[in-house]
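Input record, target 12 of the design panel.
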């Protein structure tokens, strides 16, 4: 999520601009309030000047949230600023001489499969989705890499011996980081935003650089 916390967003943007990435992925919850539209547009425009930017929508973007202060906003500002918004769709690009497919899942829960999007003629396939559990509904080999968000790393976490009690999305199986699943490798980002309350504890905002290497 692109946060209304200007400091976290600005730090993430400067860090991302310095990476000179082959592509940038935003895995949903672009906006929770209309007042964030200008910040989103400026952020995406800065990223798109250096790298192709791909994004999917999250539950906040479509007004499906427990947050009483969240309101659907105009996510078209992201596309106007240069992002490719993927909603159960895919594009194929060439990166460093390799044909790479980038697909995106819509924010609706319970979708059966995204296998129909798969172009098996591509050498590498990436799926952007908001919900991490999407990886459990994919057939093996459909995508090599799945990028997700949604959980905010638990947002407010209480330490206990051997781990954390994560107070947001208590039933989640995927909180943050890399998971190797039968269908694909999954990476879940903590993201930059918040839900319900505008702060985090033991779940710092996060932008991630993934470096992919040939086996």
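The sequence produced for target 12 reads:
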């Amino acid at each position: 999520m692109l946060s209304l916390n200007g400091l976290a967003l600005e730090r993430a943007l400067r860090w991302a601009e310095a990476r000179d990435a082959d592509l940038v992925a935003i895995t949903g919850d672009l906006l929770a309030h209309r007042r964030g539209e200008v910040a989103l547009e400026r952020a995406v425009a800065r990223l798109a000047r250096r790298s192709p930017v791909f994004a999917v929508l999250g539950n906040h973007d479509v007004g499906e949230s427990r947050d009483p202060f969240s309101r659907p906003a105009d996510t078209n500002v992201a596309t106007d600023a240069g992002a490719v918004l993927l909603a159960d769709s895919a594009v194929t690009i060439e990166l460093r001489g390799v044909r790479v497919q980038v697909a995106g899942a819509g924010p609706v829960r319970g979708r059966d499969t995204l296998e129909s999007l798969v172009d098996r003629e591509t050498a590498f396939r990436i799926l952007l989705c908001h919900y991490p559990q999407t990886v459990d509904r994919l057939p093996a080999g459909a995508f090599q890499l799945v990028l997700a968000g949604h959980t905010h790393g638990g947002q407010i976490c209480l330490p206990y011996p051997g781990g954390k009690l994560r107070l947001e999305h208590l039933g989640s199986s995927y909180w943050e980081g890399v998971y190797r699943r039968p269908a694909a490798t999954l990476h879940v980002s903590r993201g930059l935003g918040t839900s319900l309350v505008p702060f985090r504890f033991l779940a710092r905002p996060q932008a991630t650089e993934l470096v992919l290497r040939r086996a």
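The domain at 6-188 is CATH 3.60.21.10 (Purple Acid Phosphatase; chain A, domain 2).
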